[in-house]
Amino acid sequence: MVVQADEGRLTKPPRILLATAVPQERDAVARAFTEAAGERRLPGGTVLHRVRTAAHPGAPVADLLAAGVGPARAAAATASALTAAALAGEPYGLVVSAGIGGGFLPAAPVGSLVLAELITAADLGAESPEGFLPVTALGFGTVTHTPPPALVRRAAAALGCPAGEVLTVSTVTGSAARAAQLRARHPRALAEAMEGFGVAEAAAAHGCPVAELRAVSNPVGPRDRAAWKIPEAFAALTGGMRKFLPVLESWTEEQVPDRG
Question: Which pTM value belongs to this model?
Fold first, then answer.
């Protein structure tokens, strides 16, 4: 789709950057698209995989990025992609952190999808005799980014999934005690993963809105790899992305200023 702008020019809708942690997640997201449209290698070795939603040149496109594991690596790779796009005169209109993660029971069972209303760094701060203090309580930084509410509402309706707080952790939860601590501090938490906040920090630095979609592969709590359902979560991620894409495309198209 193209949008009529001022002075008779035609401009394309803003592109979407979809950031996952690992290539397997990227490939699960890619299966939701119709056609691959090439690769681009950025400085530092970051590779973008361009995909289309239909097999014709004017179809909406997105770039897929396997940004790496953890908030720091995800932030660095996402920032690299955002900077390259801005320098090329093709800035992104939306960044989406997508992948699999742990779900807080009973709200987010294994195999389900969750959307972030809030993207929160759950372990960025300091311990104290009174308990955990987020970095904001220390007088600096931020711990939460808020995706566009209208986008979240539409996506949740299209996917038929809950929206709530998705936590970013640098250390994955492996005990019932820590799961309980996180739920006590974040009663609206649906899931935890390791990249969303890093992706959101990079997006915020570029003034770009952000969203997060997670497919649940395991319960948050005692670590039991035998109980994880990784293939099922990848399949849920692909299916969820197929439903998410029309919402993403329509929302980004609406963000193009109507100056005609």
Answer: 0.90
